[in-house]
UniProtKB/TrEMBL annotation:
GO terms for cellular component: ribonucleoprotein complex; ribosome. Keywords: Ribonucleoprotein, Ribosomal protein, RNA-binding, rRNA-binding. This is Large ribosomal subunit protein uL23. Part of the 50S ribosomal subunit. Contacts protein L29, and trigger factor when it is bound to the ribosome. GO terms for molecular function: rRNA binding; structural constituent of ribosome. InterPro entries: Nucleotide-bd_a/b_plait_sf, Ribosomal_uL23-like, Ribosomal_uL23/eL15/eS24_sf, Ribosomal_uL23_CS.
């Protein structure tokens, strides 16, 4: 594994996903993120550990197929994206980050 530049790690994670499926996965201490398509699993792990100060046990990635979109008679595709499901150690959690106490 190569040494990662810490300022580059923050750019790998685009946004967290807070859908119904992602909320169900949170009960298992798994969190979903949209990431840069060229990001590797070790880079995603290093980025999550650096940004949130947690211990990551595994990273699963998905290359989702592009979705067709049309405007009138013109057909195009949505931009390519990659999704990562990150499993945290049992003692760590991102719940306070996503759902702060009101």
């Amino acid at each position: 594994m190569t040494k990662h530049e810490t300022r580059d790690l923050a750019d790998l994670i685009l946004r967290p996903i807070l859908s119904e499926k992602a909320t169900i996965l949170m009960e298992q201490n798994k969190y979903m993120f949209d990431v840069v398509p060229k990001a590797t699993k070790p880079e995603i792990k290093a980025a999550i550990e650096y940004l949130f100060d947690v211990k990551v046990t595994s990273v699963n990635t998905q290359h989702l197929p592009p979705k067709k979109r049309r405007v009138g008679r013109f057909v195009g595709y949505k931009a390519h994206y990659k999704r990562a499901i990150v499993t945290l150690a049992p003692e760590d959690s991102l719940q306070p980050v996503f759902f702060p106490e009101v």
